Amino acid sequence: MQQFRISEAAGLLGVSDDTVRRYVDQGKLPSRRDASNRAVIDGVALAEFARDTAHAAPDPSGVSRSARNRLVGLVTSVTADRVMAQVEIQCGPYRVVSLMSTEAATELQLEPGALAVAIIKSTNVVVEIPDKSLRRSTSE
Fold it and tell me: Which end of the chain is more exposed for a tag (fewer CB within 10 A), N or C?
């Protein structure tokens, strides 16, 4: 089972190390000590916490933009049959779902709590902009 140090968990959650320590102190995230006496968080617990607390931060720039193509996150769920697997990854506030062969999911050792990178390549991309009433006038 994969484990993450406080700083690694903070990076994956998009918060500071101190915030993760507070989550641990408040009992929101379970931790234990590893062989080197460092606090570590179980990958499954971290993935569940990431999924349950995910929310999109407001964009202070007011600019509409397309999402980036490389998203780092934690596997939160793997549903597989003999041929295909559905893998869910919590990438910050974003939930990414990938369909792949069960063989590929097994070879990649994808399981809840595993660190993964979702790389998105698409010939169809939907780009939206806010309602006109929410946009600033170009004369401002």
Answer: C
